[in-house]
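The records we work with from here on pair a chain with its fold. These numbers are not coordinates but entries in a learned vocabulary of local backbone shapes. To see the layout at work, look at the sequence and tokens printed below.
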Amino acid sequence: MPPKKRFSAFDDFTSGEDQPEKLKIPVPDMGVSQEETPQVERIERLKPSQMQPDRFQPRRLLPPSLRVAFFSGKITCYQAAMEWLDMAANDNGIRQEVDRLLAMGSSFGEHGQIKSITGSWQPRTDGDFVFQIETGERRFWAACLQYASSGAQDEPLLRVEVVAHPTRQRQVLENRHAEPPSAVEQACEVASLILADLGVLPPAEIADDYEFFRMARNQRMPAGLWDRLMPIMQLTRPRMVQLLNILQLPSPQLDQADRYRLSERVLREVLATPRDQWERMIRLAIQNQLTSDEVAEIATTPAPSSEPASERRVSTPVLPEPGRQAGRALKRFVTTLSDLDDYDRDQALDEIADTLVTRGNGAATADLLEELANLIRARLE
């Protein structure tokens, strides 16, 4: 148990030549022993500047462009929050996450902090201690963003529970209960549980966080490991293996897929394309909200070429041409309506007609649908 030392608001967190040493904070034991239940040693109230998120938490909240500066100690949690807010103004994926966190932060003032942050005190290289977060990083960043956006003078105080033995198991369970994880987050969760079970810790000077999670794909899995993971992940072994395969994607594509929450099925189809197509396919999937079937369709459509078909290379357009986009939208429209019973379908069509006419698109839509109907009937005949 560390001494009862009190920190000033920005003690050793805002400046100093020894800031990069914060990267050398020992990683707490994150084993997944199910027999050992971490006991709460005490409850405290701490400022965010006295706390440190776990850099290798499977759910990555802080944008990649801020992670290095924050975890190396070059910027404080509040400086990171300010930059995060600026980024949200120009990126829809970031803005959605920031809005959710700000909503949580504002609820602290209205309803109080319902759930504590858990973690343990860890020694720093300067002989001091920092509270390393086990669970509750969303609450930590929610408070930081709310403080940075509100212009408040006093740092917020967060309720934390000091636990004796933090675990990756508890971290993953907290993540899954808080919000459905993205496919990339699930892949990192499986990887982190495997590495924790095997006692593999992050290398001291690892530059890319994803490289730590990728280490799980090269491990020899002992007997019983998958059985220990299944109750935590609530997934079968083949499903967890499929998730691990996602980590083959380069880190920039993983960040994009995570931010825009691409599904595992979509990412599986992306991985089935040639490696030099992965970046384009991820961009296409995000820009056009493609399903896995649509990704597969685009990937197998050859570009026009004078070369023999046997020598022709599969190529993906930067954007699907308008006809393909309209065709996919119409296919979804017909499929959705076909699944409804007669009453619901009539009601849906009635509402669609009302909306189109009200918005001034009724006549144009009717003309286009009549033309399309004539073309379809001609082909059917």
In short: The first helix runs from residue 64 to 71. The chain is about 50% helix and 10% strand. Residues 3-36, 309-319 have pLDDT under 50 and may be disordered.
